[in-house]
Amino acid sequence: MKRAILEALQAARADKRPVALVTNLETGRQALLDGDQVTGDLTLGGPVLERVRKAVHDDRSATLPETSLFAHVFNPPLRMIVVGAVHIAQSLVPMAALAGYDVTVVDPRRAWATDARFPDVTMTSEWPDDALRGLGPDRRTAVIVLTHDPKLDDPALLVTLKSAAFYVGALGSTKTHAKRLARLRELGLSEDELARIHGPIGLAIGAKSPAEIAISILAQATQALHGAPPLVKAEAGS
Q1: Residue 26, class by beta-carbon neighbours within 10 Å (0-12 exposed, 13-18 middle, 19+ buried)?
Q2: Model confidence at 235, in pLDDT bands (50, 70, 90)?
């Protein structure tokens, strides 16, 4: 690997940017695709470039069809930040971990955020806005807001909606969500920012129990991660 490519790869990974290292298996020539920038002595263009971008989107390293090119994808790790150590979170956290997320639970209420309720889980008791600023949600991060308490949910959303998080979901009924939007408008958030909130949270699968609601949330986050078109509306009563 040439020095310029190695340095570009290291810089992208340090900044948590998704990139792909493309290698011609016959000639050994390489190129690094970082957004719209290509570094290296291998030309990427037309259908080949689109296939590499798809590999990055799908988070899947593979030999490109009908070529001798191998695309090695380097995506930042998936993260899920769960605000609210509630019953739904107890089901959601292990499910998300199985799906490949590095999960952090945020809740300043120490009676809720305990090791007994969330064994082997990273937790922080900081106030949600401070915690979110420190965690820095990026394009590989889902933020799930579950406290149902405006004093905790609203500060978390104010920070999250200014970030690049690929998914933002908030628990609450349609009526609760409408009140939430009104409060956030008064705090200066734009309509485009507010439209990013999946609320009521989760896919409409008829979920009732905390575990079922957790499944609907993880399914909706997965849908957003892969850019799939919406199949059904969110749960009105979540």
Answers
A1: exposed
A2: very low
pTM of the shown model: 0.79
User: Which residues on neighbouring strands pair with residue 105, listed in sequence order?
Assistant: 82, 123
Indicate whether 184 pLDDT > 80: yes
Sheet holding 122-124, edge to edge: 122-124, 102-106, 79-83, 141-145, 167-170, 197-198
Q: How far is CA 132 from the centre of its chain?
A: 13
Q: Which CATH number fits the domain 79-225, given the four candidates 3.40.630.20, 3.30.70.360, 3.30.2320.30, 3.40.50.720?
A: 3.40.50.720
Burial 54-74 (b: 16+ CB within 10 A, else e): ebbeeeeeeebeeeebbbebb
**CA-CA-CA-CA torsion for 161, 74, 24, 11, nearest 10 degrees?**
80
Name the phi and psi angles at 19, rounded to 5: -140, 165
How many angstroms separate the CA atoms of 172 and 201, rounded?
7
CA separation, residue 66 to residues 20, 31, 70, 124 (Å): 18, 18, 11, 49
Q: Structure tokens of 58? A: 């799908």
Residue type, 198: H
Phi, psi of 233 (to 5 degrees): -75, 165
| Those residues with Cβ within 8 angstroms of residue 208's Cβ, 6 or more apart along the chain or in another chain | none
**For the chain, which residues make up each domain, given as ranges?**
3-74, 79-225
Rounded-to-integer distance, Cα 79 and Cα 134, Å: 14
Q: Is it the case that residue 1 has pLDDT exceeding 90?
A: no
Residue 42 CB contacts under 8 Å (≥ 6 apart), including other chains: 22, 23, 24, 29, 30, 31, 69
